[in-house]
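User: Last request for today: this protein with 2-phosphoglycolic acid, please.
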Amino acid sequence: MRQKIIAGNWKMNNSNIESLSLVKDLMKFDFSNDVRIIISPSFTQLGLVNEQVKNSNIEVASQNMHFSENGAYTGEISSSMLKSSGIFISILGHSERRTYFNETDEILKQKVDKAINENMEIIFCIGEELNDRKSGNHYEYIKVQLENTVFSQPYESWKNIIIAYEPIWAIGTGETASPDQVQDMHLFIRSIISEKYNKSLADTVSIIYGGSVKPSNANEIFSQSDVDGGLIGGASLKSEDFAAIVNAS
Ligand code: PGA
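Assistant: Here's the final one, the structure of the complex with 2-phosphoglycolic acid:
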């Protein structure tokens, strides 16, 4: 069944004290059980934040993970390290990872394979640049991103895959894709999942939107029929804003 999901990507922000205070503030809100709430602090705070949310319905995800089990990969974190910290969800393929850390589809495919083999859940990010949209190439771009990565997964793995559509031109820019643009792309993504697998699978995959979602635009975006929630950056760092976004879903 498709789930409503609101995930907060805290990126490289917050000291330990700030993260704990944010999480404590979030836990004061009375959220509906119909929405899955996920927050994603930095690696160093995963254990701390996870401990804090343990009696709540807030889940914790990492912002990345490596594709190897272990070895000489200075500075990297493996799926088993995450799991041993109680973390079973990872964001993969965020455009900032792709752009600043050269994560290609080839690397991301290995990460997806590893996470799925380890029975972790992934929030897999895809999204086009402004140029692709302007030239009308955005559908093809998204299709290729999916074909190169998650589309090599068998049917059964999709219970562990959440797709986050995040047009790069809308991330952290204040420029949100219009509700029509979001719906249109989500419908396209669902249709190619349906072509590749089948309609009943496509109808169960949660496809969330990310890119300058804020309390003022959340409701309109989330009310689109193929939008199952959001991946929230900037606005997830303020408890009232994040709570308002969760409540708008
Ligand atoms: P933003 O970031 O909400 O600040 O645009 C979204 C994201 O990067 O996931």
